[in-house]
Amino acid sequence: MAEGAAADRRPAFYAARAGVWRDWWTLLHPPYTLWHLSYVAIGAGVSPRFDAGRFVATVAAFFLAVGVAAHALDELNDRPLRTRISGRALLLAALIGLGGAAAIGVAMLVAVAGDPAFVVIALVGIATGLLLVVAYNIELFGGRLHNDVTFAAAWGAFPALAAYYAQAEMIGVAAVPACGAAFAISYAQRALSNQARFVRRQVDTLQIEMRTTDGTTERSGMGFVLAPIEAALRALSWGTVLTGAALIVARLLNG
Fold this sequence. Notes:
Elements: H1 3-6, H2 20-27, H3 30-45, H4 52-78, H5 87-112, H6 116-137, H7 148-168, H8 175-202, E1 208-211, E2 217-220, H9 222-254
Antiparallel strand pairs: 1-2
């Protein structure tokens, strides 16, 4: 049997077998959700001030917005993960995620009671984040925002910037390279995952014939294409998570 015919047909390398609770696990995109929450840790970790309570609240808000709402809307839009979760349940999850994220953001503002400029900027940031989640995942405006640059900005740079601002109540020099790094890594993620998704979800069979310099012929299929891409995605996800964790541990230990 050709490798292409025997290849793993799951819609993503982290997708679980079909089932009620397993479908919800798949919907959360665990490695990618942790990956993007790591940008919150990076932004907070390079801030000149660090408050553990604000950090936990920011992580919770982005988990609800990115991990829950964004993925629920994406699945509701065109079922890329092929879960059996009902449309009503997906819509409810999206509303809970968005509402919860907004509520946490407002609660943080009330608790901080900062100057008017901080409050206005923070409110604009909250509104922008919620708009990006909806516009990107259900492809508003004719899908114009559903592209690599928007993804890298909204899912990479924005969490790092928001986390920095939530801690420092200002934008300092360190925020620039932190956001730049988050943007670049997210752009790389998108480039790799686009190819992986296409092969897993849209390619029926794939057969590759390679003629080497010594004249031999080798044949392969989907595994040959997917293996290095998904190995890189796994490594990048864990590397980013560990980088964020290292920064937070250092702040907790060193003050």
